[in-house]
Write a structure and sequence with these properties.
By secondary structure, this protein is α+β, with helices and mostly antiparallel strands. The protein contains one helix and eight strands, in the order αββββββββ.
Length: 127
């Protein structure tokens, strides 16, 4: 009787393990695909790689998102908004660049790793 119980437990355990192996975990988004629809995203590396930070209205200090002076690529997935990257905190000049809705790419060599804040609207860095 004991052998039958043990055999049943082994068979049941094997069946559970087989089912567990058959269920694959969901793949996490990578690269550009991590940017949520309707957001403006910055990435620490080229082509949407590395640390990501995303915004609806901007950020006065990109240090809070771990990407201060570290943005290399962007994707503006909003329907109509433009975001301006500013070299100073709190949206202070000089302007690094403005990214219009739908734009995706890498910052130029002169813009790379310069942004310290992000503001909503084009050319909106100020003193």
């Amino acid at each position: 009787m004991r052998k039958n119980v043990m055999r049943a437990m082994v068979v049941a355990g094997t069946a559970v393990a087989a089912v567990g192996l058959a269920v694959a975990p969901a793949n996490a988004a990578t690269g550009w695909d991590r940017c949520p629809s309707g957001s403006f995203c910055l990435f620490a590396n080229a082509n949407g790689q590395g640390t990501i930070a995303w915004f609806s209205y901007g950020s006065p200090n990109l240090g809070g998102q771990g990407i201060d002076n570290a943005a290399t690529s962007f994707w503006n997935r909003t329907a109509s908004a433009a975001f301006t990257l500013c070299d100073g905190y709190n949206g202070l000049e000089p302007e690094v660049t403005t990214v219009f809705f739908g734009a995706q790419g890498n910052l130029s060599a002169s813009e790379d790793n310069r942004a310290s804040s992000v503001v909503l609207y084009p050319h909106n860095c100020h003193y």
